Amino acid sequence: MLKFVKNHMESITGIEIYPMISLLIFFTFFVLLFWWVFTAKKEYIKTVSNLPLEDN
């Protein structure tokens, strides 16, 4: 089954760009997430982390 899929994918022209595009998208997402985590204000993090514990 895997051999069939591999042979089918190799016959499609221009398909080699898609893994590079997806890697770039995921890398960009995680770099932005990493940047957001380190630049987020401590007060905001504390407020959001206490939301599940609040009784309304």
What do you see in this structure?
The mean pLDDT is 88. The protein is elongated. It starts with a helix and ends in a 6-residue tail after the last helix. Helix content is 73%, strand content 0%. The longest helix is centred in the middle third of the chain and has 23 residues.
N→C terminal distance: 55 Å
Count of helix runs = 3
Biggest sheet overview: none
Output mean pLDDT.
88
* Radius of gyration computed on alpha carbons: 21 Å
**Shape annotation:** elongated
Q: Report the sheet-strand fraction.
A: under 5%
Counting DSSP E segments of at least 2 residues, the number of strands comes to: 0
Instruction: Estimate percent helicity.
Output: over 70%
Provide the succession of SSEs.
Answer: HHH
Secondary structural class: mainly alpha
Low-confidence stretches: none
Assembly state of the chains shown: single chain
Summarize the structure.
Helices cover 73% and strands 0% of the residues.
